[in-house]
Amino acid sequence: MSEQPVFKPFPLWTGCHSQTIAAIFLSFGRSQLSSLKRFVYLKDGEKLVMEITTPKGWKETDETVLLLHGLCGSHRSSYIIRMARKLHKKGIRTVRVNLRGCGSGRGHAMKMYHAEASEDVWEAIKEIKRDAPHSPLTVLGYSLGGNIVLKMGGERGKEAKGLIKKIISINPPIHVQSTIEHLSKNSFYERYFMAALREDVAYRHETFEELPPIRIPSQMTLLEFNEFYIAPQSGYESATDYYYACSSGRLVHLIAVPCHILFSRDDPIVDCNLLDQEGLPENIDVLITDHGGHLGYLGIPGQKGGFHWMDSVILRWIFKGRE
Q: Are residues 220 and 273 in the same domain?
């Protein structure tokens, strides 16, 4: 195995919360990226929307990267835009997939997305490969999206080899219940996500007449929200059943394609210790840094990996095998 990269945090943001929060609110490179909108028609009659950006001179045998956002994110999320721009400069086509009702897909899906959206992502992958069957495809997921792509890879096993070159997962909540409990211990994160979730629920119930009026109390916690709304909306009797069904940790060892996973020991949301590395096959590479927070990894400009160290690691994994 090649030498693992080492992350050194930016001196002003060495703590896990400062790394996480700074990464959320630093919006460099968040301006729009030109793309072609494409629908994915799902088996239940709903639609996903993909935003496809194709570099000039790109050929069908050139690489494609699918990017999947996290909770309350979209194709416009800063980490998604930033990576898509970097890949575009390197001649790689990007497909930014919006989970149900997110980003440019808002209003096209009545059902709310949740962590068990692995089947939706598989349908998006098949659509991408129908367009360009000879383009090697890397599937990259962040946070909740990272859990979804791992779950998809585990569910599909060897079948995925026919469509996917590799899977990359960044700070995936592989044990969903543990992650929700972590979030609930920090009022800032909980308020941030609950505000977005309440707004999303209100929009859906106002947009689709099939959905009855509903009110999500302003003081409702994430744990209560999942029990009251997400679990029954997703077809589960309880939040506990929902959490188990959505978690990728029990399936990671079944992934058959090359897979890279990035964790941080100080992640305030995801516990990296819940992944049993001893039982993993050789095709799965796990990198755990001491610092970085959640989707942070803001490093030192001018040093190896640069300010957006996470991006440098992702690019290294995407291009691995080309050397």
A: no
pLDDT in tens, the chain (323 residues): 457 889 999 998 999 999 999 988 776 545 678 999 999 999 999 999 999 999 999 999 999 999 999 999 999 999 999 999 999 999 999 999 999 999 999 999 999 887 679 999 999 999 999 999 999 999 999 999 999 999 999 999 999 999 999 999 999 999 999 999 988 888 999 999 999 999 999 999 999 999 999 989 988 999 999 999 999 988 899 999 999 999 999 999 999 999 999 999 999 999 999 998 988 999 999 999 999 999 999 999 999 999 999 999 999 999 986 64
In a domain, 225, yes or no: yes
Q: What is the pTM of this model?
A: 0.95
Which residues, at least 6 apart from 110, have a Cβ–Cβ distance to it below 8 Å? 46, 204, 208, 210, 211
Cα angle, residue 26 at apex, residues 24 and 30 outer, rounded to 5°: 95
Report which residue type is found at 181: E
Q: Which two tokens stand for residue 50?
A: 């993909």
150: containing domain: 16-173+252-319
Residue 56 located in a structural domain: yes
Q: Based on the fold, state whether residues 34 and 137 are members of the same structural domain.
A: yes
What is the tally of structural domains in the chain? Answer: 2
Evaluate whether residue 120 is within a structural domain. yes
- List, in order, residues 6 or more apart from 7 with CB less than 8 Å away: 289, 290, 291, 292, 297, 299, 305, 309
